[in-house]
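TICKET: design request
STATUS: open
ATTACHED STRUCTURE:
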């Protein structure tokens, strides 16, 4: 059986301007070698009119194209194996104004605090601009409309729940988050290695080891590795951390996978690219077509 490896560099691209992009600045010998050996193409991962983000792009990359916004709360619940009973919905809420949760509890919502207190990692910038703690993130599961919340609370889009169009022949290696939730709802097997955080402190070596081990399992035809660090760094407007994140992915994920593909002549391929862009100058997502490169041994 041919094994297809894919590496998704979340938010790795950005608008082209007068200065080199993060991908151009980063030292990526493995990605460069992959481009020399393989074929480069452009992919539109964000259907027109839909929100730019992993909740839209990852379904497209995995094989299901949404026709409306995807329910981010459903992805967060699935990523954590939190059940959403029939007739209820999961809502992701972000913001400093979530401090008082009584209104949500009084409305019958079950609450799960998803806030991750990220430690400062030397060489990778501060957790958020200005050294402040990140805004609180809460998952509220319940029936009926949400109660009135503060104006500084972001209520993520509700909408479509990805259908089960995949099976265990597809394995997705990711941290707990939107990518893992998408994959699980689509029916793929999801592996969350120890140390996988979805940020610049993620254990990328563990992700590569998990991907290689998954490829050796009987019946597995496709192994997708999601790397969230470039997007996370760009959201913090930390351009240097984004470059470092791309370089780390090249060194610790792409390099061992390329070696494995080369050792399986005629039986493996490797593709790599972004799901969408994220501009470290603004911290905002960018929905233009993204580059992908693929090589089959």
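STATUS: resolved
RESOLUTION: sequence designed for all positions
ATTACHED SEQUENCE:
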């Amino acid at each position: 059986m041919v094994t297809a490896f894919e590496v998704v560099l979340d938010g790795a691209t950005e608008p082209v301007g007068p200065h080199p992009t993060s991908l151009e600045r980063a030292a990526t010998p493995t990605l460069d070698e992959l481009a020399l050996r393989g074929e480069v193409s452009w992919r539109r991962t964000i259907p027109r009119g839909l929100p730019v983000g992993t909740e839209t792009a990852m379904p497209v990359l995995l094989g299901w194209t949404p026709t409306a916004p995807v329910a981010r709360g459903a992805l967060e619940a699935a990523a954590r194996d939190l059940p959403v009973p029939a007739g209820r919905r999961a809502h992701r809420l972000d913001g400093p104004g979530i401090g008082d949760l009584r209104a949500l509890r009084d409305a019958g919502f079950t609450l799960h605090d998803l806030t991750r207190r990220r430690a400062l990692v030397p060489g990778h910038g501060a957790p958020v601009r200005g050294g402040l703690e990140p805004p609180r993130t809460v998952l509220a599961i319940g029936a009926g409309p949400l109660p009135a919340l503060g104006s500084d609370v972001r209520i993520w889009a509700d909408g479509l729940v990805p259908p089960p169009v995949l099976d265990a022949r597809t394995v997705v290696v990711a941290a707990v988050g939107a990518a893992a939730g998408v994959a699980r709802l689509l029916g793929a097997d999801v592996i969350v290695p120890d140390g996988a955080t979805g940020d610049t402190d993620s254990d990328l070596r563990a992700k590569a080891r998990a991907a290689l081990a998954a490829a050796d399992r009987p019946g597995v035809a496709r192994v997708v590795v999601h790397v969230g660090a470039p997007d996370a760094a760009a959201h913090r407007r930390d351009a240097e951390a984004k470059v470092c994140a791309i370089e780390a992915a090249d060194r610790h994920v792409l390099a061992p996978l390329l070696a494995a593909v080369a050792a399986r002549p005629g039986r493996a391929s490797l593709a790599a690219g972004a799901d969408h862009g994220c501009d470290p100058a603004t911290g905002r997502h960018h929905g233009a077509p993204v580059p992908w490169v693929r090589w089959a041994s």
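CLOSING REMARK: The first strand starts at residue 3 and ends at 9. Confidence is low (pLDDT under 50) at residues 118-133.
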